[in-house]
Design brief:
Helix content is about 25%, strand content about 15%. The chain is α+β, with helices and mostly antiparallel strands.
Amino acid sequence: MKLTCKKERKIAPKGITLIALVITIIVLLILAGVSIATLTGDNGILTKAQTAKTETEKASEEEQLKLAAMNAAMNTQGYKYETEDGQAVPIPAGFAPTQIEGQNSIKDGVVVVDEKGNEFVWIPCTIEEFNKQRNTEDGWESKQWCYNGNGAQWGDSQPNKEEIQNSITDENIGGFYIGRYEAGIPKEAKEFYANSDGAPYKDAIEKNTDKYIPVSKKGVQAWNCIDQAHAKDTAERMISNNGVQSYLIDSHAWDTTCRIIAKYDTTKSLTDSTEWGNYRLNKTTKYENLNTLYALHTYESDSLHCAKTYSKGQVTRAPKGKGINRIELSTGASEDFKAYNIYDLAGNMWEWTTENGNNVGSKPSEPMPNLQTTDVPDAKNWVRRGGGFVNNDANPVVYSLRRRL
């Protein structure tokens, strides 16, 4: 009998040396870093994808606005429009709803456009809400700062009171429209656009105010350096047809708009609007990310309120709060500045209203020209709302009752 033996083969242990492991980890970390850099960063895939998405949405919105303007031109009778939340909104002749996502419901703010591309937001209200100037239940005061500051008795001439109240009480209307943007300078008003050679903007305003009609559009130069009387006249010339008449906003319309914001856009504080207004102490806006028309103002110069030079492009930095380098921006420059689909109620430019004050002991330290109108011949001062880019949060949209003037 023959025996056979099988020789066992020894299996050598397999593994990885510590040095190889470290090198492998380093290589993997490098590759991961490269991958992350490729995906993120200013030129990363994700950043480019987000930029492309934003640009696509912007282009789509612009197309929808153009289409709405065409529909507005064809709307000769006016009609009731049902919003996505089932409410009926009156669309006057010469206007059409944008039907853009986020602009198509009462809770968000219904946006309409005219055939020229001007945008407005619907403010639904009752006559009781409209006549309630002071919202004591919410703890804020309607009266605002005026050119004279303290020492005046406030009133509101409301020169168009009857027409606006009729608009609200009419069962087919039930509210009013407000300009979505601050009054802007039309593109054809070339002399209003200060340029690099220091063209005097203020002189152009004083000489040419009556020649042009303001616009309510995004990305244009806000109509600055205009007195209350010219603001009133200019506002009334903006739109006037069989179905619509435009006016300078009065205290009731302003306060009603604020109550709508308080009701539907609860993230926006009315008594501390620093986080959603273009103020020099704005806490949240990334000014460096804005690409728009802008002007840098220096407190010590005579261009504090009327810039001599405007630039268009990337805003170089945020405003500073030490009395210098405040930044004037174009209309609707940032989504931060929007409440209930209305831009720049807080900051950027002061807003004239039809409110006035009679002098009762103090005199304006720096009287502005053309402050008086035929509506209130004894008025010495005019109320300004919302604060401006030169201010901090001491000038909010409304004042807390603890800070009454």
